[in-house]
Here is the input.
Amino acid sequence: MNERYDFIVKLRAIRDYEDRGLSEPDLEAILEAARWTGSSKNRQNWSFVVITGEGLDGLAEHGDFTQPIRDSAATIVLVQEAGGNMFDIGRAAQNIMLAAKAIEVASCPITLHRDADAREFLGAPSGSVTRYAVALGYPAPTAVPRRFGGRRSAQSVVHYDRY
Ligand SMILES: Cc1cc2nc3c(=O)[nH]c(=O)nc-3n(C[C@H](O)[C@H](O)[C@H](O)COP(=O)(O)O)c2cc1C
Here is the structure.
């Protein structure tokens, strides 16, 4: 194919970050990519809450596999506002991850399993859903994708004409 195609296909979750904050321009660039994500009827029913510093440990309490949040330079929580839909949130998360990769920032999607508690922690409005976040940081020199186990075969996931 070509480099741009590989850039997308080779996006991996990276969980090991350098111990330094994101630069303001890098964080802004990532948030801008999130803001420009397409959404159903262009409703943009989302908010993006950036957590840094001491807030990271508090946020991490609300999910089961959240060490990347604790280790991150910043974590963006995707808030699905009332009336929004999760497909849009997923698109925004992927935009965040791809934009981050484009400026050499590593990322990992995170589930906040106790999302109602996370919502309270964040002070997000009732009716909003705060179940997903993306941890971000400059990749540690030793960083490698950890749980990458390949993918199901094309034959098993792609169907033509009928399931
Ligand atoms: C919706 C979603 C939720 C995820 N939640 C977590 C999580 O809570 N903790 C974590 O370490 N990784 C999480 N991941 C990352 C996946 O484990 C990872 O994407 C998957 O193992 C495939 O690896 P790869 O993205 O490096 O190819 C999540 C990914 C997705 C798409």
About this structure: Residues 11 and 109 are 12 Å apart (CA to CA). The pocket of flavin mononucleotide is lined by residues 12-13, 15, 63, 65, 68, 108-111, 132, 145, 147-148 (CB under 6 Å). The domain at 22-142 is CATH 3.40.109.10 (NADH Oxidase).
